[in-house]
Automatic annotation (TrEMBL), chain A:
Annotated family: Belongs to the ATPase gamma chain family.
SUPFAM superfamilies associated with the record: ATP synthase (F1-ATPase), gamma subunit (SSF52943)
Gene3D superfamilies: 3.40.1380.10, ATP synthase, gamma subunit, helix hairpin domain (1.10.287.80)
Keyword Cell membrane: yes
UniProt subcellular location: Cell membrane; Membrane; Thylakoid
PANTHER family: ATP SYNTHASE GAMMA CHAIN (PTHR11693), ATP SYNTHASE SUBUNIT GAMMA, MITOCHONDRIAL (PTHR11693:SF22)
Gene Ontology CC entries for this record: plasma membrane; proton-transporting ATP synthase complex; thylakoid
Membrane topology listed for this record: Peripheral membrane protein
Molecular-function GO term, any one: proton-transporting ATP synthase activity, rotational mechanism
Pfam name, any one: ATP-synt
Taxonomic source organism: Solitalea longa
Assembly description: F-type ATPases have 2 components, CF(1) - the catalytic core - and CF(0) - the membrane proton channel. CF(1) has five subunits: alpha(3), beta(3), gamma(1), delta(1), epsilon(1). CF(0) has three main subunits: a, b and c.
GO biological process, one term: proton motive force-driven plasma membrane ATP synthesis
Name recorded for this polypeptide: ATP synthase gamma chain
TrEMBL record, chain B:
Subunit structure: F-type ATPases have 2 components, CF(1) - the catalytic core - and CF(0) - the membrane proton channel. CF(1) has five subunits: alpha(3), beta(3), gamma(1), delta(1), epsilon(1). CF(0) has three main subunits: a, b and c.
Similarity annotation: Belongs to the ATPase epsilon chain family.
Keywords assigned: ATP synthesis, CF(1), Ion transport, Membrane, Transport
Topological category with respect to the lipid bilayer: Peripheral membrane protein
InterPro entries: ATP_synth_F1_dsu/esu (IPR001469), ATP_synth_F1_dsu/esu_N (IPR020546), ATPsynth_dsu/esu_N (IPR036771)
Gene3D superfamilies xref list: F0F1 ATP synthase delta/epsilon subunit, N-terminal (2.60.15.10)
Gene (UniProt): atpC
Organism: Solitalea longa
Gene Ontology molecular function, alphabetical: proton-transporting ATP synthase activity, rotational mechanism
Name this protein carries in UniProt: ATP synthase F1 subunit epsilon
Role: Produces ATP from ADP in the presence of a proton gradient across the membrane.
Amino acid sequence: MANLKEVRLRIASVKSTQQITKAMKMVSAAKFRRATDAIVQMRPYANKLKDMLANLSESVADMDNVFTQERELNNVLLVVITSNRGLAGAFNNNVIKATNALIAEKYAEHQKQGKLHIVAVGKKSQDFYTRNKFQVIGNNNEVFNKLNFTNASAIVEAIMDGFAAGKFDHVEMIYNQFKNAAVQILTQEQLLPLPKAVQDAKASKVDYLFEPSKEEIVEELIPKSIRLQFYKALLDSHAAEHGARMTAMDKATDNAGELLRSLTLQYNQARQAAITNEILEIVSGANALAEA
Amino acid sequence: MILDILTPDKKVFSGEVISVTVPGKAGSFQIMENHAAIISTLDNGLVEIRLTDKSQELFNIKGGVVEVLKNKVVVLADGVVEE
């Protein structure tokens, strides 16, 4: 019976697929833990920086920093953060879809006039936007191999330099924010100019000495907070990626199990049918002999 | 006096200290018990810590800010050069 063999082969292949998805789930789980750790490690720094900026907020408000300047919207830069690898459910697709929707809705004109630029972080968005002939600047796929503040800063500094030099007037990031292993929140965030909302925060009533001067400190803290915002987005996306892959692979493993069950049933039925058939043949053969 | 040295990647140091010398933009300065509240930017350079057991510890930081408030010192460094 050919059917029997076919089913047996399919069972074997589903089993090996299941093994792969199971292994990928385990790997992602380990990487996920490390990625969330990195977020936790960054938090004290981020909180303290926010406090300090809050203490300086009056001077931030009337500061004319390059990075807080609202300019006429000429050139737009979108930072699209995805992962290097697929098999993470809708993780990358969501980001790309949201970016395309954003372009269609707000920046269609800029796109037509060639005033829309894209910085892709992660191979998936890099590939997509290169393939579709967008103006993609640079290649930042290696950052996820060793994700730390120094590597992330290199990318965001290039963006900040471009902004300061007037190459872009508006920078937005689109990425998956990490909530928990199963949930990613698609986030769209303005990176530059520094949104005013971030600048309004309540100050404590401590009389600090400022060295060298309030203005110079603010001058230094603003780029720091932009770098940190970008780094946070990367960390979030990284953790979200592994979370998404973990859930996707968990589902895949479950589905493979289900498939295996139904295939095994099919296999057993086919085998039983073959046996019944054989018995029938033998019995009818014997009967034919007895009659003769 | 409690000192925390933080970078975006990790907490580098946290603990009780006697004094700490930081590489301020306007010149290196030492912070001791009951220092006035201050926020200062830092250059690349060495942070020298004197621990409660009189031993010394050094960190080579890559720029940052220091905040002193009520005997709590927080150094936010962009990074720490590993020895």
